[in-house]
Write a structure and sequence with these properties.
CATH topology of the largest domain: Butyryl-CoA Dehydrogenase, subunit A, domain 3
Largest sheet: 4 strands, mixed
Number of strands: 10
Number of domains: 3
Strand content: 5-15%
Distance between the termini: 38 Å
Structural class: alpha+beta
Helix content: 40-55%
Shape: globular
CATH architecture of the largest domain: Up-down Bundle
CATH superfamily of the largest domain: Butyryl-CoA Dehydrogenase, subunit A, domain 3
Length: 386
């Protein structure tokens, strides 16, 4: 992949960061995936531990978490740079670098009290404690302000919660989570955020089988009790916290999709130069050349849109629309690119010997997760028509 143009380039420190991550992925992570189940969602502990030790040494540990709590504390553009190359492994779309760089706790926790951060955020960075975020419900995942029906009622020093959440990624593997429930009337001001322990009485989980390699969960609350001290912020502030988390997370989310698609394109281009059909190389066929060219052009555009969103975020600007543009462009582009690459590989493209078929399945979810493409189009159009 060539850098897109000379009118704008990454700062030197981020170029060095990108080179470090690329080398780590090529020399350490992708070799560690060899020989394991094509649909694995974790490396064997004996393979993962030395990778995590090396990542800590390189300063690549929990890159989205503040440095004061043990993370790398990268800005949004730095997170996007890491996310793009960390996705370039078989399980990279949902487990960047196979978790070699650790697993960041949801950034919402850093808006909590110092006690909440020390109890939940820091163990996630130091000890690998995992967390889930429960927003979506069967009543509508893309419109939480109106769709959330799970209700939390305060009774003395506790909240009693009843309701159900859907499509909660990582819930089965998590130690704690962030729950968004209704404490007031309809609308944004009636939603509150809570920290919930995995072992909370009255909370149960059921996996939902989907097309990707691991299942999200339905999380049900039946008179589950949450201590008042586990409330994040004040009552009614939950939607604002959710919006902050969702908007900024869309940037590395977009970058990860671009990274997988770029890896697929690099693989397809290399294969086209070697594969001979009808007495000439695939690379000599105009149909193949155009698929490769269209993919390169679209990826460059999506990458620059993602970097632009990150740059604006690092300047402290409101990036609600920029993040939607990046998420829409990256996920839609990545799906098209991987589809073309499978076509170039032919039958081999859908064989589990290569990661393309897994990427294809998981990218299909990426067009729905973090807000479906249609919602982002609506947000962008609304801004244009203001």
């Amino acid at each position: 992949m060539h850098d897109a143009g000379s009118s704008w380039e990454l700062p030197e420190d981020l170029r060095l960061l990108r080179e470090t991550v690329r080398a780590f992925m090529a020399e350490k992570v992708r070799p560690a995936e060899q020989g394991i189940d094509p649909d694995a969602v974790a490396l064997p502990p004996e393979r993962l531990a030395p990778l995590q030790q090396e990542a800590r040494r390189l300063g690549l540990w929990c890159v989205e978490s503040p440095a004061e709590y043990g993370g790398a504390g990268l800005n949004l553009l730095g997170q996007a740079i890491v996310a793009e190359d960390a996705s370039k492994c078989r399980m990279g779309l949902y487990f960047p670098a196979c978790d070699a760089f650790g697993v960041d706790p949801p950034n919402i926790i850093f808006a909590g009290t110092s006690e909440q951060i020390e109890r939940y955020g820091v163990p996630g960075i130091d000890g690998g404690k995992r967390a889930f975020v429960a927003i979506s419900e069967a009543s509508g995942g893309s419109d939480p302000a109106r769709a959330i029906r799970t209700r939390a009622v305060r009774r003395g020093d506790r909240y009693v919660v009843n309701g159900a959440k859907m499509w909660v990624s990582g819930a089965a593997q998590a130690d704690w989570g962030v729950l968004f429930a209704r404490t007031g009337e309809a609308g944004r001001s009636g939603i509150t955020a809570f920290i919930v322990d995995k072992a909370a009485p009255g909370m149960t989980m059921k996996p939902i089988a989907v097309i990707r390699s691991y299942s999200p969960c339905e999380v049900v609350f039946n008179d589950a009790e949450i201590p008042v001290e586990n409330r994040l912020g004040e009552e009614g502030e939950g939607f604002a916290l959710a919006g902050q988390w969702l908007v900024h997370s869309r940037v590395p989310y977009a970058a990860g999709c671009i990274g997988v698609a770029q890896q697929a394109l690099d693989m397809a281009a290399a294969y086209a130069k070697e594969r001979e059909v009808f007495r000439s190389k695939l690379a000599e066929k105009q149909a193949i050349q155009w698929m490769l060219a269209d993919s390169e052009v679209e990826l460059r555009a999506a990458r620059l849109l993602t970097w632009q969103a990150a740059w604006h975020g690092d300047l402290g600007r409101d990036i609600k629309i920029e993040a939607s543009v990046a998420k829409l462009a990256a996920t839609e582009t990545a799906g098209r690119v991987v589809d073309r690459c499978i076509q170039i590989f032919g039958g081999l493209g859908v064989a589990k010997e290569l990661p393309l078929e897994r990427w294809y399945r998981e990218l299909r979810i990426k067009r729905i997760g973090e807000g479906p493409s249609e919602v982002h189009r609506m947000l962008i159009a609304r801004e244009l028509l203001r």
